[in-house]
Amino acid sequence: MTITIVPVGKIEEDVIVEIAERLRKRFERIIVLDERPIPTAAFNPNRKQYNSSLVIRSLKDIPGDIVLGVTSLDLYAEGLNFVLGQAEVGGKYCIISTARLGHPDRKICYDRAEKEAIHEIGHVIGLRHCPNDRCVMHFSNSIFDTDIKGAWFCERCLDLLHNRR
Ligand SMILES: [Zn+2]
Ligand SMILES: [Zn+2]
């Protein structure tokens, strides 16, 4: 399984390097592409945010088993004030935003980005939200939820994944 990481719009290089390094420890093959612009049509001038579905749609020419977009621009979905990320459940494409993951301690930013990336990858490979607040598939209502949860799947989620194969 190949995970292709695509920087989108604007993102610090150290974040991409760190996410790639961490994902390499957990998944078979990681490829990092050059940055591509965020689609201007995704920008909502009233909200000053980008529509995450439209950003995901703009990634669809990229081949690979799983394509993970990473941006520092703030994302939203209809009906939500913001999203930390979005994925096509059982599809191929997902995106995370680091806009709300900031912390003076860079390591905490990296931890948060890793968790959100693995969370969205979990959706792509077919997992839904998990009630276990330590599981990476737990839904983050706020950054506090992200800090509480771990960076990997709980036993139940791993079982669900294995039963799919
Ligand atoms: Zn989710
Ligand atoms: Zn779980």
Architecture overview:
- The protein has one domain: Collagenase (Catalytic Domain), CATH 3.40.390.10.
- Helices cover 32% and strands 19% of the residues.
- It is built from five helices and eight strands.
- Strands 2-1-5-8-7 form a five-stranded mixed beta sheet.
- A hairpin with a 4-residue loop joins strand 3 and strand 4.
- The structure holds zinc ion (2 copies).
- One zinc ion binds next to helix 5.
Keywords for this entry:
Collagenase (Catalytic Domain); 165 residues; globular; binds zinc ion; 19% strand; alpha/beta; 3-stranded mixed beta sheet
- Rounded to the nearest angstrom, the distance between the terminal CA atoms is 13 Å
Strand content: 15-25%
Number of E-type strands: 8
Which strand order spans the largest sheet, edge to edge or round the barrel?
2-1-5-8-7
Overall tally of domains? 1
- Number of continuous helical runs: 5
- Helix fraction, binned, reads 25-40%
Structural class from helices and strands?
alpha/beta
Q: Which molecules other than protein and nucleic acid are bound?
A: zinc ion
Q: If you compute it from the alpha carbons, what radius of gyration comes out, rounded to the nearest whole angstrom?
A: 15 Å
Mean pLDDT: 95
Main sheet specs: 5 strands, mixed
- CATH class equals Alpha Beta
Q: CATH homologous superfamily - what is it? A: Collagenase (Catalytic Domain)
Shape: globular
Find the CATH topology: Collagenase (Catalytic Domain)
What CATH architecture would you give?
3-Layer(aba) Sandwich
Spell out the helices and strands N to C: EHEEEHEEEEHHH
The low-pLDDT segments are: none
